[in-house]
Structures are given as structure tokens and as C-alpha cells.
Write a structure and sequence with these properties.
Layout lengths: L6 H16 L3 E8 L4 E8 L11 E3 L5 H8 L3 E3 L2 H7 L1 H6 L5 E8 L4 E9 L9 H20 L11 E3 L12 H9 L3 E6 L4 E4 L1 H7 L3 H4 L4 H4 L6 H13 L3 E7 L3 E9 L3 E10 L5 H8 L6 H15 L4 H15 L4 E8 L2 E8 L3 H7 L2 E2 L7 H7 L3 E3 L2 H7 L4 H4 L3 E9 L2 E10 L7 H38 L10 E8 L10 E7 L4 E9 L4 H19 L4 H15 L5 E9 L4 E7 L5 E5 L2 E4 L19 E4 L5 E5 L11 H14 L5 H12 L9 E8 L7
Parallel strand pairs: 2-7
Antiparallel strand pairs: 1-2, 1-6, 2-3, 4-5, 5-6, 8-9, 8-12, 10-11, 11-12, 13-14, 13-18, 14-15, 16-17, 17-18, 19-28, 20-21, 21-22, 22-23, 23-26, 24-25, 24-27, 27-28
Helix pairs in contact: 1-5, 12-13, 12-18, 13-18, 19-20, 21-22
């Protein structure tokens, strides 16, 4: 990257320029971490870095605006808080403030880099103007070009590089006349930077707050003033920072005062007016009692909300493990993690981070009543245990501190209604004192993790059974035929534990002819799977008996009607004659196949389909014949490959034919990968996908 500084510093400076050019108040740059399929926040402008903790690392599949912008390769605009709650409830849960947001992809010439997020104050109109959209697009192009031209790729830091939007700063307290003027006013004044620290305070403000100016400067109000240490008060500050809109609130100051705070934010900080109200009529004891109520800082509450929302989206045990490592571990500043489940009276480790393999081997499968570590006792008592240093741990478990070399630990029991699920251990490389709010949040989080892990374990078990059933219903291998190369693939939908209805088969009829069959039973259920097995058997029997393609479908159709099934079936039957170089098709409402008949030439095979199987007893299935030159490839597939939400299947099919024409044909298995990735680049398929490829490598001579 051009200019001084490291690549990440240059990128952060460029982000600040984008924020200024677009008129935004806040900006962030995400880069894709290819190895883990994650987005990493690498640069931040106009917002305290602690605010970004819930979104510093995001899965590429997370339902957030920046992922949609990258996936759709276009600008995503969210004009209001209500719109955010409708479209992105998880984001709205951790950002419950009024603002407008834009997300756009960073696509360079060399690669897809990531995305950018920009936020505007609450008074921004709900719609972006054409000029604003043009500025955003131009700015993202400049950022992508900057990344392309960098000789050294930017690093992906653990915390984003923060840069201010401009150089405006509040003046030091050296203007004596101005200070005297402010001190004479009956109201107080102070200034906060965007991190919430007090950078300026008048004598009146200090008197109203009950502290000397030197006790306030450099502190955050909710930390230096116990009566302001409440989630509602800190949240007012967060609202002002994110929305850039004026905020007012009133707080009781013991013993008998009420103070009203008026906050006026801009890009460099917040100016605060403090007005006193006499509150002598209130009971001082009651007022003080309210302030003694322990509270959890707002940031921790939002962090818990974010992690809870993320845990609800986990599906598999692998998802839970990944979330623990990628989000929970950094959220609490830990360096090590061990996640175990209770199985057959032992703690089986299913995930870990920050530990060498020999340590994990020694800790794996310890009995639940072990005295080596607190894990078993914690799980038995369903009570979390926190150890700030090795000495704390050694008092009860002398051997435990020396097992891993860590210096502090949080042992969290994963329990559901008294039933032990497992244990999560967070560990630290240095001694760590766990604050009351950390203990509260970690304890709450353990309950959520237990539910997620239990649910994921059940899903994995059911999914494994379904996968085994699916494999039993599909052919284990395809027959070999001289002159014909074949490859097939069945891919279930991205999530789900129901059996799919897709099926395929290849039948060797004699030395020079074969029948390729592909179909899709309506729905995803055990009934659909059973019907799929019956259809495959019927097609196989009729084809082996010498029936023509149209007869095979007609007879199978009558069988389905006799079975009185409520399910319908789409099916394509292709008769391959290698000696004549001919392909004969009959279709029952199935999507048309593709034919690549020459280098860089592919087309959709048009034909007149008959109705779906199971509708009309007297249905006819017209035949369509076409030549099959040596070297040509026929691609049969189910509708899950080309029917994507929000797209035109005909256009998708045309695009797929173009891709087939120009793809690498050397290996049919790799060609299937290429076709599936082209149709579903993110891998988040909404339906089962089946592909069957046939290549005529040479016509057999007549026998």
C-alpha cells in the first residue's frame, strides 16, 4: 500500500478518509480469513474498540448486513432501527440504537477481500440518496484497489486498528477566561472522548458530581461515580456514540439530589451539560439502597445477548466448538479452552484451543469423580469455579496447576435441569482476577452453551442416522461400461435431518447401451425416502425387461398411482447407445439436462416433458433423440442445483450451461465440484442437489 506506516495502519487511514467522504460517523473494514471462512474486523473508525467486541470476528454465513453485501456483491442499506430489527434481528439485539447503515463488498481484481460497514447518525433519512450510493461505491472501489496494489497483504489482528475520523480534539483547560466563564454558570460542563473518558470538567460539574476535578479527569463516569454505575446510564452514553444524536437522562445522586445530563455527541467526543434538581423530599435511605444494587455493565449484557444469539444459530457440535474458539474465547480475553462432554462416566474432550496435544491426551477421558482437576466436581455440583492464579487452584487440586502451564482458570459446568452435559474450561496465560460481572456472565453463558451443545449432539446423532439411511437407498457404486465414463454426487441441503428424495442410477443394459436415471421425490421425509426406493426398483425392473424410455416412465407412473401415494415424482430417463452415438430422453416433469458436445460449446437439451409421476394414469412421455459425439458430456441434475431463492431458474440454467462449456473437463469428479460451486458459491444450499455426469469417450464397434 502506498504511503507511510504498516499496511493495517494505511488501511485504517483510508477507512477514515471513506468515513469523511461519505459523511458517515462510524466505519469498519472486514477482511476474509480464508483458512477459517471468517470475517475479521481489521480497521475501525469513530467507535470505541470495546463496542466492537461482539462483531470483531464473524462467520461468513452469519446473518449480518456485511455478509449479505459480500454474497450479493452489492450495496446493502438499512435505513432505520425498525428495518434492522426486521431484517437482521441478531444485529439489532446488540445494537439497539437509532442509526442508518450501509454494507458493501470489497472486490478487487485479484480476489474478494471482504466488506466495509458505514453508519450514519439517527437523523439521517431512511433512504440513501443516489449521490450517497455513488460515494459509497466509489469509496469501496478505492479501498479494494488499495488492497490489490499492496505488495504485502494486511495482517488480520486480534483487535482492529482504530483511527479517528478527523483531528478535532477538545482543548486542554488552559483558556482561563473560558474556564472562569463556565465556572460562574449554575450548571456544570464536562467533555468525554469516544472511549467515555472525561477530558474536561468545570469546577461546578465537579462539585455537582461530588469529586475533585483531578479525581474525574481520565476516568469514565460510571467507573469513578458509584451511583452512575448502572447499565441504563452507560447505555445512554452508548446511544449517543452510536446514533450521534443528543441524549438526556436524569440520575439520583445520594443523598438527596437529582442531576440531569444532556449529552451532545460529534465525531470527536461528547459534550455534557449537568443540571441540578433539588430532591430533598425523597428518602435518602431508599435512594442509597437503589444504588447499592449490583449491576452488570451494559457492554457485558450486550456481549451476552450477542453470544446467546450466536449459540441459538449453532446446529452441529462442530458449530458449537467453532463458536467457543472464535467468539467466546476472545470475548473474555482467554488464551486456552477445553470443551468436554460427559459420556459413560467420563469427560470426553471434543474441542480445545491453546493446548499441546500431549496435555489434551492426558486430560481426555478423565472419570467424572477425578481429583486431578476441578472439572468433575464442578459438573457434579453444577457450580462454576474460578481460580485467579495457580496458588488458588493448588489449594484444592495440587496437581492441576502443573498440568497445562496456565495461570488462571474458569471451570464452567454445562448442565440442563440437573442433567450433566459437559464442562467448558477457559484458561489464561497470566493470573486473572474474575470480576463479579465476569462471573455472572460466564455462569449465564454456561447454561446457554449446555443447551446448544445438547441440541447439537442430538442433531448430529439424527443426522448420522439419516445419512446412513440415505446411503443405503442410493447405489453404492455404478457399473462400468466400455466407452462411457461416469461420475455422480448427492449433496444434502445445508441443514436438516430429514431424508432427501433425490435419487440416481445407472443401468448397464448390454455391452453398448446403458440407462441413466435421475429423479426427485416431493418433500423430505421417511415417506419420501421409501417412495424413492420403490421408484428406483420399478425403473430398474422395467428397463432391465427391455422397455423403451417412454414405457419405463409410463409403467412406473401407473405403479405410483396404484400405491395411492400423496407424493409426486420428477424423473428423467436417458437411454445411451454408444454404438450409434445416440441419446434418447424421456422426462416426467424433470429439469432438462445439459450437453457439452464440443470444446467450449454446451447447450440445454430441449424436449417436451410429460407430467410428474403419480398424477395421470394415462399420461404419455414423449421421446427426444439427439446425437452423442465422442468426447461429449451429458449433465443430469435435480432442480436443487438451479432453483435458488430470488433467481430465475431459466437464467441460472443458461449460466450453468455456459460454465460447463468453459470448465475444465479433465476429471468428472472435479467438474461436479465446479458446477455445484458455480451454482451455490457460499455452499448454503436450500435443497438437496444431485448431479450425474456421463462422458462418451469413444463409440464401441458393432459386435
Amino acid at each position: 500500500m502506498s504511503g507511510g506506516g504498516s499496511p493495517d495502519e494505511v488501511l485504517a487511514t483510508a477507512l477514515a478518509d471513506v468515513v469523511r467522504r461519505t459523511g458517515a460517523a462510524i466505519g469498519g473494514v472486514y477482511l476474509i480469513e480464508e483458512a477459517t471462512e471468517m470475517l475479521r474486523l481489521v480497521a475501525l473508525c469513530g467507535l470505541p474498540v470495546d463496542f466492537s467486541a461482539p462483531w470483531q470476528r464473524l462467520s461468513l454465513t452469519a446473518p449480518v448486513p456485511v455478509n449479505d453485501a459480500i454474497r450479493q456483491n452489492g450495496l446493502v442499506w438499512v435505513g432505520s432501527q425498525d428495518e434492522m430489527a426486521r431484517r437482521y434481528p441478531r444485529t439489532a439485539a446488540v445494537l439497539p440504537y437509532p442509526f442508518a447503515l450501509a454494507a458493501a463488498p470489497l472486490n478487487g481484481v485479484r480476489r474478494r477481500w471482504g466488506g466495509i460497514v458505514l453508519m450514519w447518525p439517527a437523523d439521517h433519512p431512511p433512504e440513501a440518496t443516489p449521490r450517497e450510493r455513488a460515494h459509497i461505491t466509489a469509496s469501496t472501489h478505492r479501498l479494494a484497489r488499495l488492497l490489490d496494489e499492496s505488495p504485502i497483504p494486511p495482517e488480520l489482528p486480534d483487535r482492529p486498528h482504530v483511527v479517528p475520523a478527523d483531528s478535532v480534539r477538545h482543548p486542554d483547560q488552559t483558556g482561563l477566561a473560558a474556564v472562569d466563564y463556565l465556572d460562574r454558570l449554575p450548571e456544570g460542563a464536562l467533555s468525554l472522548d469516544l472511549e467515555g473518558r472525561i477530558t474536561f470538567v468545570t469546577a461546578t460539574a465537579a462539585r455537582l458530581l461530588g469529586r475533585r476535578p483531578d479525581q474525574l479527569l481520565g476516568t469514565r463516569p460510571w467507573q469513578s461515580l458509584p451511583w452512575l454505575d448502572g447499565p441504563g446510564y452507560e447505555d445512554q452514553y452508548r446511544t449517543a456514540v452510536v446514533s450521534r444524536a443528543p441524549v438526556s437522562f436524569t440520575a439520583p445522586r445520594p443523598p438527596d439530589q437529582r442531576l440531569t445530563f444532556h449529552m451532545y455527541p460529534d465525531t470527536s467526543g461528547i459534550s455534557v451539560r449537568i443540571i441540578s434538581h433539588d430532591d430533598g423530599g425523597r428518602d435518602p435511605g431508599a435512594l442509597a439502597a437503589v444504588q447499592r444494587t449490583p449491576v452488570t455493565p451494559t457492554g457485558r449484557l450486550y456481549q451476552l445477548v450477542h453470544l446467546a444469539a450466536a449459540l441459538t444459530e449453532t446446529v452441529t457440535v462442530r458449530d458449537v466448538k467453532a463458536l467457543a474458539v472464535e467468539q467466546i474465547l476472545p470475548a473474555f480475553g482467554a488464551q486456552g479452552l477445553v470443551l468436554s462432554v460427559a459420556e459413560a462416566g467420563r469427560l470426553k474432550i471434543i474441542g480445545h484451543h491453546g493446548y499441546p496435544a500431549d496435555i489434551i491426551e492426558r486430560l481426555d477421558a478423565l472419570p467424572l469423580d477425578t481429583d486431578v482437576t476441578p472439572a468433575g466436581q464442578v459438573l457434579a455440583s453444577a457450580t462454576a469455579a474460578f481460580f485467579a492464579n495457580p496458588a488458588d487452584l493448588a489449594r484444592s487440586y495440587p496437581r492441576a496447576p502443573w498440568l497445562s502451564g496456565k495461570q488462571a482458570w474458569a471451570f464452567l459446568p454445562l448442565v440442563i435441569t440437573g442433567r450433566p452435559v459437559g464442562c467448558c474450561i477457559l484458561s489464561y496465560a497470566q493470573p486473572h482476577s474474575f470480576t463479579a460481572d465476569e462471573r455472572a456472565v460466564l455462569t449465564s453463558l454456561a447454561g446457554l452453551m449446555a443447551q446448544a451443545l445438547d441440541r447439537a449432539h442430538l442433531y448430529d446423532t439424527q443426522h448420522r442416522l439419516v445419512a446412513e439411511l440415505q446411503r443405503a437407498l442410493l447405489p453404492g457404486s455404478l457399473p462400468a461400461l466400455p466407452g462411457l465414463e461416469v461420475a455422480a454426487r448427492y449433496l444434502p441441503a445445508g441443514h436438516g435431518i430429514e431424508v432427501g428424495g433425490d435419487f440416481y442410477d445407472l443401468l448397464r443394459l448390454d455391452d453398448t447401451t446403458a440407462a441413466a436415471v435421475i429423479g426427485d421425490v416431493e418433500g423430505h421425509s421417511i415417506a419420501a425416502a421409501a417412495l424413492m426406493g420403490q421408484v428406483r426398483t420399478a425403473v430398474h425392473a422395467h428397463a432391465s425387461a427391455g422397455a423403451t424410455p417412454d414405457q419405463v416412465l409410463a409403467r412406473t407412473n401407473r405403479l405410483l398411482i396404484d400405491l395411492d401415494s400423496d407424493l409426486l415424482v420428477a424423473c428423467l430417463y436417458a437411454h445411451v447407445d454408444l454404438r450409434r452415438g445416440e441419446l434418447t430422453l424421456a422426462s416426467a416433469g424433470h429439469v432438462p439436462p445439459l450437453l457439452c458436445h464440443a470444446p467450449q460449446q454446451a447447450r440445454i437439451l430441449d424436449f417436451e416433458p410429460g407430467p410428474l409421476l403419480g398424477i395421470d394414469t394415462h399420461a404419455q412421455y414423449p421421446l427426444t433423440a439427439t446425437t452423442l459425439p465422442a468426447g461429449s458430456i451429458v449433465a443430469l441434475y435435480t432442480d436443487g442445483l438451479v432453483e435458488r431463492p430470488g433467481t430465475n431458474p431459466a437464467q441460472v440454467t443458461n449460466d450453468l450451461a455456459h460454465h460447463l462449456a468453459h470448465a475444465d473437463h479433465d476429471n468428472l469428479e472435479c467438474l461436479i465440484d465446479s458446477l455445484v460451486h458455480h451454482a451455490w458459491p457460499t455452499g448454503q444450499r436450500t435443497d438437496d442437489v444431485t448431479v450425474l455426469l456421463l462422458r462418451c469417450v469413444g463409440q464401441s464397434s458393432p459386435s
